[in-house]
Amino acid sequence: MSKLNLAQAIDLTGLADKARQEAAAEIVPIEISPEERATQIPIPVGYHILCAIPEMEKAYESGIAKADETMRIEEVLTTVLFVVAIGPDCYRDEKKFPSGAWCKEGDFILVRPNSGSRLVIHGKEFRLINDDTVEAVVAEPRGIRRK
User: Using CA atoms, how far apart are residues 82 and 111, in angstroms rounded to an integer?
Assistant: First the structure.
């Protein structure tokens, strides 16, 4: 039976660290112009609608400023969304939508709180919702609050 001499074993941890450092050195930060950032907004596919969260009021009607956590909760649970883009298959099912499209790009719509997939692009929150998630279209969204 042979004995294993650990003193003669090769230490490979340095090679792994070196490979990680070389890979990290190859990553170059990319400068993105404001024009290019605008094109990074996803294009909805299928029956999905891309919506933006409208800016929340930073103060109550009384003038008292809202806490950051209050602002975050209001954004997460908002029922008002702004339609940015509509997927190519939205409202195409004539059996499901006999009266046609429920909304169009540029509309403010009402949805249930927490509807859709939440994503943040350059610090701004967006939602991807299904076409049948729209509950109403509103002309003036200011003043609408979740109960």
Answer: 11
What dotted CATH number matches 42-138?
A: 2.30.33.40
Q: What is the pLDDT of residues 30-70, one digit of tens each?
A: 666 666 665 678 899 999 999 998 877 777 778 888 787 87
Residue 54 CA, distance from chain mean position: 13
* Torsion of the alpha carbons at 9, 10, 14 and 17, rounded to the nearest 10: -90
What Å distances lie between residue 112 and 9, 26, 28, 80, CA to CA? 62, 45, 41, 9
Check: CB of residue 54 under 8 Å from CB of residue 107: no
Give 59-86 pLDDT, tens digit per residue.
777 888 878 787 777 777 888 999 999 9
